Amino acid sequence: MMYFLKKIGRSVIPKKLFRTLQPIYHGLVAYIATIYFNHPSKKLFVIGVTGTAGKSTTVIMCAQILNFVNRKTGYITTAGSSNGDNAFTNMHGLSMPGGWLMQKQLANMVKKNCEYAIVECTSEGLAQNRHVGINFQGGLFTNLSPAHLDSHGSFENYRMAKGKLFTTLAKNPNSLLGVNLDDPNKNFFLNFKAGKKFGISTRADVSKTNNLITFNAENIEVNDHISFSVKGVQFDLKMFGTFNLTNALLAIGCTSMLNVNLSDASLALSSIDTVPGRMEIIKEPDSPTVIVDYAPEPAAMEASLRSVILIPHKKIVHVFGSTGGHRDVAKRSLFGKISAKFADTILITNDDVYGSNPQVIANDILEGVNQAEKKKVQQVEIILDRKTAITKALQIAEPQDIVLITGKGSEQFLILPDNQRIPWDDRVIVKKLLNLR
Fold first, then answer.
1. What count of other Cβ atoms lies within 10 Å of the Cβ of residue 392?
2. Fold match between domain 2-270 and domain 280-436
3. How many angstroms separate the CA atoms of 392 and 435, rounded?
């Protein structure tokens, strides 16, 4: 019912007024849901994770560690959710669900006797007050780069929206705040008050400041896996990507502050093969290595490509579009410039285009490819049908090559022109096509 009310509202209410009313609407729904579900967050230790990239992975890593030491934990992310007993694929597509669904999921965690809940918190979700009624006792900051500026109006507004997560921590003497000290915005988030604070860093020269407890990674090795040590304890992750080192450190620091031994955290993280749709590897005999990643923002895409080039390969074939349709138009050409620096072959395709012209989006990306300096790319082609583009990538790639597919990750739908929404999963498409080779 609420979905249809929102849909009708979008069609009859002027856009500017609709955006003004959104926080009121979402805040009211969240408040009513909080009462209806009997304030579930008061019965849980709720930790919010925010930032531009790495939120889902950090959430799942935290939950993995806590569950490993028998502290039952549920979570809510873009990639999926868990009520503490069972994991579920995210079918609605929202990284941070609306207040009603959020409170319902938290209430289910309470029913399953969870002690902790880890929640991914997006800038738009926080700006729209979807978090109203949640008693956050912990907040983690991953990183920040320009994103969703069309919605927020400026980078400062975007950062302020992220900061809304941390405003309630001052009320609780047992609250916990964790910050990535390698990010230029660290001081903005450290300035929020909390019962306990900690920082993480991949740099050995970061020392304790203002009584801040730090968790630094040392003896770092990053290739097709990640190994490092924290306070003398060795960590070996089956995942790869330098950014996953930061995600892991936040999870390690957070759970350590909750009195989990580092050795237990090491064992817990070593058992994670992948996070759904986050640098997820699909490999069949005599076929190229396929990596499916979310990376919907330029900084995340560059991080993915920088990680992929560390894996031994002959060529990199990159399949991507520009998610968001009319939103964040400027990032289209930036995507093209970034991919051109690392990929040998680029196949530009559809992502979620909504009401925009997909050919215009593709042309904007291509313009970025052509404008790139010191580019590596040798071949570029526009194939608007995403399945056809993935098929072409698998056809031209050799067993020693890597096919990187970004933009959708584990999302379960694709939004075509005129807002036509169809079932979709990049990983399912890839597996079917590889079996036909």
1. 18
2. no
3. 15
Q: Are 234 and 263 in contact (CB under 8 A)?
A: no
Dist. CA 323–CA 301, nearest whole Å: 12
- Strands 233-237, 226-230: pairing is antiparallel
Strand partners, 352: none
Decide if 297 contacts 52 (C-beta within 8 A): yes
pLDDT recorded at residue 364: 94
| CA max distance for the chain | 61
Which residues, in sequence order, are CB contacts of 6 under 8 Å at separation 6+?
25
Helices (H), 276-410: 298-308, 331-342, 358-371, 386-396
pLDDT of residue 330: 83
Class of domain 280-436: alpha beta
pLDDT in tens, 145-198: 876 656 666 888 889 989 999 998 988 889 999 999 999 999 999 999 999 999
What is the CATH superfamily name and number for domain 2-270? Mur-like, catalytic domain (3.40.1190.10)
Q: According to the model, what pLDDT value does residue 4 have?
A: 44
Q: Domains of the chain: which residue ranges?
A: 2-270, 280-436
Count of beta carbons in the 10 Å neighbourhood of residue 187? 10
Q: What is the pLDDT of residue 326?
A: 62
Report the distance separating Cα 297 and Cα 300, nearest Å.
5
435/287 Cα distance (integer angstroms) = 10
Q: Which residues of the chain have pLDDT under 70?
A: 1-20, 147-153, 204-210, 324-327, 436-437
The per-residue pLDDT for 261 is: 97
